[in-house]
Amino acid sequence: MNSFYRRLLAIGSLLGAFGVIFGAFGAHFLKNRLETPSLDIIRTGVLYLFIHVLVLLFVVILGIKDENSRLLRSAGIFFISGVILFSGSLFYIATESLTGLNIPFIGVLTPIGGLCFIIGWGMLSLYPFSNK
């Protein structure tokens, strides 16, 4: 496994750990501190985080056999970006009332993260038809 896919595996594993932490934090610590809609936002962020961590691990497995695929590398980068932008912005939005932080542009990051997911999936769908 080359260094790119080692890093992708490490990042994906860390994101998976963060998913467990955020899920547990939402389920236990925040459940009495946030309204139901905010808890639902956290659940959505955790769900999308885990889905894309799993697909990221799938990209790593494919990358072991095809280390030079630009599509796989790019898909992995887009999946990581999507997790950070989409799930990260949802976690911030859901806890904004508790943190008191006001970052007005953060809401625009959610659809950008969703677009990163879509691009990553598109690249992954093209991979079986690519030469490299």
From TrEMBL:
Primary localization class, coarse: membrane
Ranges that cross the membrane: 42-64, 71-93, 105-127
GO CC aspect terms: plasma membrane
InterPro entries linked to this entry: DUF423 (IPR006696)
Pfam families on file: DUF423
Keywords, sorted A to Z: Membrane, Transmembrane, Transmembrane helix
Subcellular location: Membrane
Membrane-topology annotation of the record: Multi-pass membrane protein
Family: Belongs to the UPF0382 family.
Protein name per Swiss-Prot or TrEMBL: DUF423 domain-containing protein
Organism, as annotated: Candidatus Opimibacter skivensis
